[in-house]
């Protein structure tokens, strides 16, 4: 699996398994299937309510801890200095781990909350409890404000990113700060499968529409975390590295940009 080098020297597999809205036995089987089939990067969050099931899947996989990359996130109601440390410890316990590979502030809830949370995360990072720290759903403005007080730069910004919302400007900005982009909803919540243009590109290369959508992002150096609980899709999603999108493909793909979000606007997060 190709890896992306973060600004602190940590490497993250460029394709991971997303677990948003997957719970219980369903998420257990998805994570177990993924790890059994070569995935080493699993993305979750406290608010998903599935960290304990992921813990069980990791243990049952038999894969050594150091060979896995686990991401989880700090929820909005837990932001703040002391509350961040408590929330982190709960996630650590629920995941059954000694450390987290990547810990993210899930959403921006104001300059003060972000700064307090980040201070706690920096301390956990320096104590070796977290291998890399970052943010999620942060705009350029949010990052600029965080950098005013941060001692450690964010390594990652995880955002909604797909063919319809390619995030070119945000990626350019983040790269200028040494921050890597991670794309959630890389398949546009299934909307890509309705596109005749993408079907034609997939057929041309003997690949699937999902492969085209993922390779478009991976070729830009963006980490992707497609969510699936179906065995065949989990296995097939990582089979993209022999796909070469040509200039005509990219022209068609770029024509599908519409700038529409499927999820909450980071500037209007009311939860």
CATH class group: Alpha Beta
Uncertain parts? none
Q: Give the SSE order as H and E letters.
A: EEEHEHEHEHEHEHEHHEHH
Sheet with most strands: strand arrangement: 3-4-5-6-7-8-9-10
Name of the CATH superfamily: NADP-dependent oxidoreductase domain
How is this structure best described in words?
It is a single chain. With 271 residues, the protein is an alpha/beta fold. The protein has a single domain, classed as NADP-dependent oxidoreductase domain (TIM Barrel), CATH 3.20.20. Helix content is 40%, strand content 15%. It contains 10 helices and 10 strands. The protein has helices at 24-36, 51-61, 81-95, 111-126, 140-147, 168-176, 196-205, 209-218, 231-237, 247-255, and strands spanning 3-5, 11-13, 17-18, 41-43, 69-74, 100-105, 130-136, 156-160, 180-184, 223-224. Strands 3-4-5-6-7-8-9-10 form an 8-stranded parallel beta sheet. The protein has a two-stranded antiparallel ribbon with strand order 1-2. Helix 1 links the parallel strand 3 (17-18) and strand 4. The chain is globular and about 55 Å long.
What are the main properties of this structure?
8-stranded parallel sheet, TIM Barrel, 15% strand, 271 residues, two-stranded antiparallel sheet, globular, 10 helices, alpha/beta, 10 strands
Summarize the structure.
By secondary structure, the protein is of the alpha/beta class.
Topology:
Blueprint lengths: L2 E3 L5 E3 L3 E2 L5 H13 L4 E3 L7 H11 L7 E6 L6 H15 L4 E6 L5 H16 L3 E7 L3 H8 L8 E5 L7 H9 L3 E5 L11 H10 L3 H10 L4 E2 L6 H7 L9 H9 L16
Helix pairs in contact: 1-2, 3-4, 7-8
């Amino acid at each position: 699996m190709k890896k992306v080098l973060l600004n602190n020297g940590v490497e993250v597999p460029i394709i991971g398994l997303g677990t948003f809205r997957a719970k219980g036995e369903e998420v257990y089987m998805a994570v177990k299937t993924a790890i059994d089939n070569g995935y080493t990067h699993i993305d979750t969050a406290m608010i998903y309510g599935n960290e304990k099931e992921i813990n069980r899947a990791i243990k049952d996989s038999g894969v050594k801890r150091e060979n896995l990359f686990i991401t989880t996130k700090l929820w909005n109601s837990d932001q703040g200095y002391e509350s961040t440390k408590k929330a982190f410890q709960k996630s650590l316990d629920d995941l059954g781990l000694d450390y987290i590979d990547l810990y993210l502030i899930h959403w921006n809830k104001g300059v003060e909350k972000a700064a307090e949370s980040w201070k706690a995360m920096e301390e956990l990072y320096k104590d070796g409890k977290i291998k890399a720290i970052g943010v999620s759903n942060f705009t350029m403005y949010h990052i600029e404000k965080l950098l005013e007080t941060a001692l450690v730069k964010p390594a990652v910004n995880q955002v909604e990113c797909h063919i319809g919302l390619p995030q070119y400007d945000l990626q350019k900005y983040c790269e200028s700060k040494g921050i890597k982009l991670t794309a959630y909803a890389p398949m546009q919540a299934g909307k890509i499968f309705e596109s005749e243009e993408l079907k034609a590109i997939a057929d041309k290369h003997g690949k699937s529409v999902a492969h085209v959508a993922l390779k478009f992002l991976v070729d830009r150096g963006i980490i992707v975390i497609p969510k699936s609980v179906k065995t065949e899709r989990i296995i097939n999603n990582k089979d993209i590295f022999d796909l070469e999108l040509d200039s005509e493909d990219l022209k068609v793909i770029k024509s599908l940009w519409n700038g529409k979000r499927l999820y909450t606007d980071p500037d209007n997060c009311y939860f």
